[in-house]
Specification:
Layout lengths: L2 H26 L3 E8 L3 E8 L1 H19 L1 H27 L11 E4 L4 E4 H6 L3 H28 L5 H26 L8 H18 L1 H15 L11
Antiparallel strand pairs: 1-2, 3-4
Helix pairs in contact: 1-2, 1-3, 2-3, 2-5, 2-8, 3-5, 5-6, 6-7, 6-8
C-alpha cells in the first residue's frame, strides 16, 4: 500500500470519527450530569453540564490532526461534511418521531417530560430534538470549527510549521470559547435552557475545554509523529495528495 492510499484511508477514518462524534453530541446533549469536584483553596465545586460536552472536544482534536497532516482545505471539507451529516440526522429523527407508532416498542411508552410538564412519548423525549437547540448547535458549530481551522493555520504559517503545541491550544481554546458562548446564548434566547444557567454552564464548559486542549496536546504530538513517520513527512509538512 503506497503513501497516497494510506493517507486516503486514514483521512476517511478521521472524518468518520469526527462525524460520529458530532452527530452523537446532537443526539445526547439533552442529558445533563452533575459532579462534585474538590479544588485546592476553594473547596468543593459543583460541575454541571450536558453529556454532549464530553464528546464534542474530540471533533477539535480530529480537525487539528487533519489540519496538521492534510492541510486547511481537507479540514474544511470535514467540517462541511459534519454539518451535512448533522442536518441529515435531524431530518431522519424528525421523520421517525412524526410517524405513528405501532402497538409495541418504545413508541407506545410514555413518561413525564419536565421540559413541557406533561406526559409524552419516550421516543420523542429522548430524540425529539427541538429546532431551536439544533439551530443553536449548528450556528455555534460553524463559527467555532471554521475559526479553529483558520487560527490553526494562521499560527502554523506564522511559526513556519513549528510549535505545534501553540497552534493546537490557541486554536482550540479560542474556538471552543466562541462555541460555548454562542450555543448557550442561543439556547437561552430560545428558552431551551433558563438564563440563570448561562453563566455557570459557560464557565464550566469553557474550563473543561481549556483542560481538554491542554490534555490533548501530548496526544496530538504522539499521533502526528506516528502519522508523519509512516508517511515520511517532516515536521510541519503536509500530505500533498490525499
Amino acid at each position: 500500500m503506497n503513501n497516497n492510499t494510506k493517507a486516503n484511508s486514514l483521512y476517511i477514518m478521521l472524518a468518520g470519527i469526527f462525524i460520529a462524534s458530532l452527530v452523537s453530541c446532537n443526539l445526547i446533549f439533552q442529558k445533563f450530569f452533575q459532579i462534585e469536584i474538590w479544588i485546592p483553596f476553594i473547596g468543593y465545586y459543583t460541575f454541571e453540564q450536558s453529556v454532549g460536552l464530553l464528546v464534542y472536544p474530540v471533533t477539535f482534536l480530529v480537525t487539528d490532526i487533519i489540519s496538521e497532516i492534510y492541510g486547511q482545505r481537507k479540514a474544511n471539507q470535514v467540517v462541511t461534511s459534519g454539518l451535512i451529516a448533522s442536518i441529515f440526522m435531524l431530518i431522519l429523527v424528525t421523520i421517525s418521531d412524526s410517524i405513528q407508532s405501532a402497538e409495541f416498542g418504545t413508541g407506545k411508552i410514555f413518561a413525564y417530560n419536565p421540559a413541557t410538564n406533561q406526559e409524552e412519548n419516550i421516543f420523542h423525549i429522548v430524540f425529539g430534538l427541538s429546532g431551536a437547540a439544533v439551530f443553536a448547535s449548528m450556528v455555534a458549530y460553524l463559527f467555532a470549527q471554521f475559526i479553529d481551522v483558520k487560527i490553526f493555520h494562521f499560527w502554523k504559517k506564522l511559526t513556519n510549521g513549528k510549535h505545534l503545541w501553540l497552534r493546537n491550544n490557541a486554536s482550540t481554546i479560542l474556538s471552543q470559547c466562541i462555541d460555548t458562548f454562542l450555543v448557550l446564548l442561543l439556547l437561552c434566547y430560545y428558552n431551551v435552557i433558563p438564563w440563570d444557567k448561562f453563566t455557570p454552564y459557560f464557565i464550566n464548559g469553557f474550563l473543561f475545554k481549556v483542560f481538554f486542549a491542554a490534555f490533548d496536546t501530548p496526544i496530538i504530538y504522539g499521533l502526528t509523529y506516528i502519522i508523519r513517520k509512516n508517511f515520511g513527512l517532516k515536521f510541519g509538512e503536509e500530505v500533498t495528495s490525499a
